[in-house]
Amino acid sequence: GYLMFLRRHGEAVPGEDEAISVVSAEHVTEGFWVGRGSPSIIFQLELDTITSNEMARYLRWLDWARDDLVGLVKGLGPEGLDAPCPGARTLREVLEHLWQAEQWYVKNLGPRPGARRCQDILEKLEAVREVTRHRLSTLSDAERGGVLFYAAGPFSSPPGDPWTARKAIRRCLEHQWEHLMETACRVDKQP
Asked: Which of 157, 179, 153 is nearest to 70 (CA)?
């Protein structure tokens, strides 16, 4: 799982034989999106300031997951990316979805530079990551704090949901991991 992924990339995490403990910090049981990755949920922990060291670590994790994802699909070509998958999106549609979602997560933190325009989906993913990395790594102290940002969007429920830097990086990490695992299963390879 995720610890193996981090360990493989050289992150200091507990060893396979070491015990870890998990604490549920919050249990959300209400709302339209529960169980489906709500863009509107904000956890109490996400109101805490994220340090620049934490942000750098999480951006590293994001980059590793993206590199692994690109490694899985890079040689597939159009026929592999566009191959139908009964009851699911094509891999190209999954990648387009990731690209669009990442743009939206970062947009919720306020003004950001626009991504360079690309046609190729792998170039689009690289371009949006450049914007994500730039925006999240250059947040001011106030922006990394518990200050809420508000954005209305097609997936907000209701429009004007609260956002913080922690929420944005959590959504990026979770979403990237979800589709990395989906893609690994579909191409029958471990990232």
From this structure: 179
Could you tell me the CA-to-CA distances from 129 to 52, 98, 132 in Å, in that order? Answer: 18, 11, 5
ω before 86 within 30° of 0 (cis)?
no
Per-residue pLDDT of the chain (191 residues; tens, 9 = 90+): 888 999 999 999 888 888 888 888 887 777 665 555 566 678 888 989 999 999 999 999 999 999 999 999 999 999 999 999 889 999 999 999 999 999 888 887 877 677 778 899 999 999 999 999 999 999 998 889 876 666 565 555 455 677 889 999 999 999 999 999 999 999 987 66
Do 34 and 150 meet the contact criterion of CB atoms below 8 Å apart?
Answer: no
| Two tokens, residue 23 | 């604490």
Q: 122 is written with which tokens?
A: 């792998």
